[in-house]
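Kindly go through the following sequence and its backbone structure tokens. Advise at your convenience whether the structure tokens fit the sequence:

___
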Amino acid sequence: MERSMILYLSGPITGVDNYQEIFRTARGRLAAMGYKVINPAEMIGVLHEGASYEDFLDIDLALLAKADVLVQLPDWESSRGANRELGFALGTDKIVVSLDSLLGGGDGRGPAGDL
């Protein structure tokens, strides 16, 4: 995968106490490999206090639209938002990879990459 591609991190946030650390670590590892990375977990706190789940997801999907690749973090399957991001990514012909396979040096294809 080309290092000039923009990667979007996708994984569970709701109900995960250390989600910011998980997303930040993933971003750091990928950035160290030379990738440009969008971390949607950094958007928490940007919207007004009364923002709804759908408000956040609208912004997440707009950010994903600017990316070339959806990177699935561990346990993404349990996240309603990550599943919606996957549907959006597939519907807009994004590349879909798992973080583990990307970091492991394989072909980078994640669980949804074979769809």
Q: What stands out?
A: Residues 97 and 110 are 4 Å apart (CA to CA). Residues 107-115 have pLDDT under 50 and may be disordered.
